[in-house]
Amino acid sequence: MSMQRHIRIFNKIAPVYALFFGYQLRRYRHLLKQYGHEILAQTHSVLDIGCGTGALVRALSECDLDVCGVDGAERMIQLARRFNRKRPARFAVVDAQTAFTKPDSEPLSQTYDLVVASYVLHGLQKDERQALYAYMRGHTRRTVVIMDYNQNRSWLTSLIERMEGGDYFRFIEQIHQEMQDNFPVVQIVQTGKRSAWYICRCSNQDRNRL
Q1: Are 92 and 107 a contacting pair, CB within 8 Å?
Q2: What's the number of domains the chain is made of?
Q3: Rounded to the nearest 10 degrees, how much is the dihedral formed by the CA atoms of 108, 93, 89, 202?
Q4: 48 or 160: whose pLDDT is higher?
Q5: Of 113, 144, 133, which is closest to residue 42 (Cα–Cα)?
Q6: What are the tens digits of pLDDT across the range 76-134?
Q7: What is the CATH number for 129?
Q8: Domain boundaries, position 139
Q9: CA pair distance 123, 66, nearest whole angstrom
Q10: Any alpha helices (H) in the chain, and if so which ranges?
Q11: Which tens digits make up the pLDDT trace of 180-199?
Q12: What is the C-alpha separation between 54 and 9, in angstroms, rounded?
């Protein structure tokens, strides 16, 4: 599926995502409380790629972090700003089709302590994922965290992902190898029956932190 079609779909379904903001926020708060020590130590600045309605941005900003969220869907960013209006977080509409091969504008030109992408990778084609991996490696000082599916499938998830038209099926088959090919140090934390955090360090010197 083309990136522009992907963006159009998420602009249309943004109001549906908004209905689940409260649930997502509670879930992210819980996960950060349980696993945040793995990624938040000595972290001050965070970039959330594909931030959607901003639930993860808000949970991270509640940890007193400087957080910026970017998304290609303008309606998602509008909702994210509304849900975070009392937080100091920043947001920007970013067209991911070109952003990670030409990251020469704010906020993508900056470097962050932590770069995260939550349920973004499985919707991209492999060449787009590779471009995103390269961007993440080049713009983090410490850690990349990819929050996404693990290799356990369910019929409902498969149905939804088939309707959205992403690359979910190939992604979950290749995810472990892709991570190892793109990052020298990868820790996999199973956060649910069908979800995981892939905590990636960009230097072998960081191995002792895991």
Answers
A1: yes
A2: 1
A3: -30
A4: 48
A5: 113
A6: 999 999 999 999 999 999 876 566 666 666 788 899 999 999 999 988 888 888 989 99
A7: 3.40.50.150
A8: 3-209
A9: 27
A10: 3-19, 21-35, 55-61, 74-83, 96-99, 126-138, 155-164, 168-182
A11: 999 999 999 999 999 999 99
A12: 18
